[in-house]
Task: inverse folding
């Protein structure tokens, strides 16, 4: 089953929604790795992509936090750091087991979509809109 973007994930800020959509695409790719010819190589490529994209996306949000003097920035930036650390830990823990690694990563990302995108990210909508970012 494909993992696809849903309107319920929207934060009604186009640049952020576009970036979150890339995360969902990466999640979908992750969930399909075990069926490819060289899962280990494919998985490590997707993880690299995910790591790069996470940094890029978090930098985008954090740039606006500073620019708009967003009150929840400290807590939010901390959550971004935790994401990166957790990703590293999962990678280390399951480096010898492609199947477990891909399952754990998809679970981790699904949890992030629910608890970060749909909860924490939504808290900055008002502040971003007030500053003219839609
Ligand atoms: Fe985000
Ligand atoms: Fe965020």
Result:
């Amino acid at each position: 089953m494909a993992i696809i973007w849903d309107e319920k994930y929207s934060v009604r800020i186009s640049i952020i929604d576009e970036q979150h959509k890339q995360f969902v695409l990466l999640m979908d790719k992750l969930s399909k790795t075990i069926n490819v010819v060289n899962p280990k190589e494919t998985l490590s490529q997707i993880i690299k992509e995910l790591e790069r994209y996470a940094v890029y996306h978090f930098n985008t949000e954090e740039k606006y936090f500073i620019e708009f003097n967003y009150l929840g920035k400290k807590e939010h930036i901390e959550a971004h750091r935790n994401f990166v650390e957790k990703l590293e830990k999962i990678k280390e823990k399951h480096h010898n087991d492609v199947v477990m690694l891909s399952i754990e990563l998809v679970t981790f990302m699904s949890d992030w979509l629910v608890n970060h995108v749909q909860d924490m990210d939504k808290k900055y909508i008002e502040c971003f809109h007030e500053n003219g970012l839609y």
